[in-house]
Amino acid sequence: MELICPAGTPAAFREAVDAGADAVYCGFRDETNARNFPGLNFTRDELREAIAYARRNGTQTFVALNTFMRAGDEEIWYRAAADAVALGADAMILADFGLMAHVAEHYPDQRLHVSVQASASNVDAINFLVDAFNAKRVVLPRTLTIADIARIAPKIRCEIEVFVFGGLCVMAEGRCSLSSYATGKSPNMNGVCSPASHVRYRKEADELVSELGAYTINRFAAGEAAGYPTLCKGRFDIADEPGYAFEDPVSLDVMGEIDALTAAGVSALKVEGRQRGKAYVAEVVSTLKKALSAKPDDRSALLAHLRGLSEGQKTTSGAYEKRWR
Amino acid sequence: MDIARPSLTMGPVYYLWDSAKWRDFHFRIAEESPFERVVIGETVCSKRQHFIEPHIAEVIERLEDAGKTVLLSTLALVTLERESRLIRELARDSQHMVEANDLSALGLLNGKAHSIGPLVNVYNSATARLLAERSACRICLPPELPFSSVKRVVSETPGVDFEVFAFGRMPLAISARCAHARSKGKIKDNCQFVCGEDPDGLPVRTLDRQSFLALNGVQTISHTCQALLGELGELAACGVSAIRLSPQDCDMVAVATLYRDALDGNIGADEAAEKLRRVYPAAPLSNGFHHGREGAAWVARARDTAHAG
Amino acid sequence: MRFPATLAAPLNVIPVAAIERATSILFRRVMKEHPHLFVRLGEHLGKCFAFMPTDIPLVFVVSPAQPSIHVVRRAKAPPDADACVEGPIVMLLALLEGRCDADALFFSRDLTVSGNMEAMLAMRNALDDCDIDLPRDLSALAGPLAPIVSRVAEGIRQRALTGEAGRWN
Predict the structure, then answer these.
(1) ipTM of the complex
(2) Rounded distance, CA B84 to CA A124, Å?
(3) Shortest CA distance to C168 belongs to which of B130, A276, A250?
(4) Would you say residue C20 lies in a domain?
(5) Model-level pTM?
(6) Which of these CATH numbers, 3.30.420.10, 3.10.350.10, 3.40.190.10, 3.20.20.110, describes B7-168+226-274?
(7) CATH class for domain A2-168+250-324?
(8) Which residues of A touch C169 (CB under 8 A)?
(9) Looking at residue A124, what is its pLDDT?
């Protein structure tokens, strides 16, 4: 089982490699990837050095070009693809059909992975991408149960990678315009969800109010664990009942299900969190690496330790468990 | 140059309406509306399928008798084997043009002329051309697309008829989880179809009482209603061939008539917007996405193309 | 954990100018060790960033474009800065060294961020990539300050690693 780990900076990249990642995924410092945050990501030179560092340690590097090309600006994405190939990316993680077609045509030897942002959630969808673009691996949307994955795996002609730890999209990934509806910045076109440029925290009496654009996303009582105002994890009023309408501020943790995922036919486990610091990456990757080889009984103790790092300090199995729905 | 006047398409009803209401609504659309084509079929949640199934044949017949073209919509989120089967059968057997709303439908419809719904990510002409090579002949662009993108995609993709989502609460997200059922203390697997209680969506307000979103089963929609009226002139001029109106729980015949009048230059954009607010008072109008702004924004235009001449 | 009040109290009587002089020496030293520290700030290079320890009556305002650091006494009014981060000094120093995850600290409300979030996020990421190691970076400091500085830095480090910051939350 491969462990695929995030890196938002060269320092985090080195930590992930040192902690035993089988592959590290990262992106360029622009809108060609879905973590286009200020101060994050890699210049061409930084990626060159990172890939060299990874190679020396037997680690692979995946480059995420997982946003959708803005009409008229396609050249930014094409250039990023060309550079990723030239710098020696072991795989490219893509979401946009137009970009997949371009990469499949111009770099037929380049390994192509289907990003979770492509929302390939069933056998016919995945095989379409395998047939059309020679995709070698699909990162499954976080909309499937483990039973769904087990049913899909034998019928598709590529490897399966699933998210097991970190931030959790509640909505089908790559198909969500909530953030652009509120801010004008589109996760799909600009690579940012709930962008920091539109985030404001303000104190109101004892409460901490988080806002995104013109909208209140949450109010936290004194001492209550707070969260970044990601839209789908906000607290809203429905029929005068305040509550987390879509999802609590929790993060995903299905490391307890490693054996079931292996049995279901999954070949790689992915950790979310390119926006998190290098300390987080080091801690999470080394713990998960240990957990992978630990006996099931020892695993839970290892994993409990990570909970404190999570958003809202709570975790969920998300869609992997049917009851979540 | 004489610009062809765009036709009107009615999108699928995204909400769970009572069977008889759904049927009668389409009968009236058949008889009284200026729509040229109508897309029908459950798009949001496969569990709702049986509500409309008994009436699909008669609705199609009425619409076709009235001279409308009928397209059949596929599900937006396909995860269960049952759902996959439904799409395979539709792709294989349908006598009507199918409108694809997910990747599996795109794969299955290769080689058979089809339409692409607004829930498929078409952000650029490379993607549009790829879909065209795979037998797509109509594409309704995603509501999120700014006009700068619409213009480019349309001009760089000859041979495809493009539509733009010009009326209705915008589909913003879809989830495996049913927030609508959860908000009423149910889970998806035992939802008892509580989304049927909100035929125009269940409002989601912020804790500061701002109207923000609405729930429609597993789909999240905007509180505001997309209304491209002052923009119709530039959409037509750039080659968009049809304007899509997405049904809300209001007098859609009146909405369609209003858009037809606006397209034909019989009514100015400001007046049309005023009238639209009276026909559909439930939601404020917005057109922010078209202008590259936040989708909830309303950009009032100084320029009124319909009156300018 | 909080900075012991007995240690914080003298800061009320030492003239701010003296504290600022000392801080500037440390700041310049760190900049010398990490000349590319602020490259990641990009368009936010020209902003001012306030670091506000909750357990020390001082505010440190960094202007990366200069680069320079100013020290002012904590007042009722918010400091003149584009973005502020507030928290126990141990947490702020751990953040500076990338030894703790700012997201985790924020989720647990140990840190409070206000003002321009995008700028502060860029600063966080810039610091995180930089491998700042205060005892190491400051050990080269000459002069009478050197032993004090490295002793204090190491002491704080120990507290951070064994105290609350060590458990992350």
Answers:
(1) 0.95
(2) 8
(3) A276
(4) yes
(5) 0.93
(6) 3.20.20.110
(7) alpha beta
(8) 308-309, 313
(9) 96
